Amino acid sequence: MEVERVQAVASLSMLMDTIPSEFIRSEHERPGTTTFHGPVPELPAIDLSDQDQDNLVRLITKASEEFGIFQVVNHGIPVDIINKLQKVGREFFELPQEEKEAYATPPGAGHLEGYGTKLQKEIEGKKAWVDHLFNNIGPPSSINYNFWPKNPPSYRFDFLLIDFSHYQSQLRILTKTLSSCREANEEFAKCLRGVVDKLLMNLSLGLGLEGNELKEAVGGDGLEYLLKINHYPTCPRPDLALGLVAHTDMPAITVLVPNDVPGLQVFKDEHWFEAKYIPNALIIHIGDQIEILSNGKYKSVLHRTTVNKEKVRMSWPVFCSPPGEQVIGPLPQLVSDDNPAKYKTKKYKDYLYCKINKLPQ
Predict the structure, then answer these.
(1) Quick one: which of 317, 320, 345 has its CA closest to 331?
(2) pTM to 2 decimal places
(3) Most buried of the four, 116, 193, 234, 290, by CB within 10 Å?
(4) Which residues contact 306 (CB under 8 A, 6 or more apart)?
(5) Which domains does the chain have, with CATH numbers?
(6) What does the DSSP 8-state code read for residue 360?
(7) Closest CA to 321 of 255, 251, 256, 254
(8) Active site residues
């Protein structure tokens, strides 16, 4: 059965200046009436190059406890590499529909990879104003090139992000004509892994643990990196629709590369407010697994995305997740008679299944 994509719906909706009823959110969700327009808190901005280790731990810990989201600057990933990633993502969604459909996630596939529209079940049967493309980008054993678009031609190479330095031998199969692209990918790989490792180390220290304990708890070097490109077409009624409904992220952390069109909203102090971010910053979301491991000290941020009437919005989150068989629960060092475990211990794949299908955890 053919799946209707939001890009196609948007083209017709813009002509008719209305949207189908299944995209109209209920009263308590509509951004036009639920977005707070008074003074709003700013997302914490953290300089990841700060040489004062104690200060860096303090800032990341405070942001993770109070917000569950923060932005990092001076993260070490060159702007031109990020621009290249954004460019090929935009080019994919500009392809003819039949080309995009060649990479559609098969029904009942049991994985997230590929091009698609609907991800999670919605109790009210509503739809989100977004299409997406998922690709595993690391470690190499998790990559399935069947879901990596052949067009634009640079996609397969510009998104080879997480081939870590100790997997460099696998990159030698690329032709010499791609050497400059390979260098850019290796640089990005090294930098992104460095960002994630540094975040996990500081989060671990903020819990009073050794610096490596949190990384080991989420899978160590087996940590999986899943890229999702979100494409939010223009919408004639952005006051009624949502790009993504309110949710927390399932993995350990999410590293988000946004574009210049605002739309990320965060729920704090009983209000939805627009997240304003610094150009070229990376947005870091604390995910469910870090909240669980910290026994609730760190908060998985509740957020949603809005859409725009004039401009297409896109985002490039990389979900950093434990392997499916990894058992996740409150760390024993953080559990006591005075602070009992607040969450169940289970395999990450079981947590994922329950969350996607709206089942109790």
Answers:
(1) 345
(2) 0.89
(3) 290
(4) 31, 35, 238, 242, 243, 263, 265
(5) 6-356 (2.60.120.330)
(6) -
(7) 251
(8) 228, 247, 249, 303
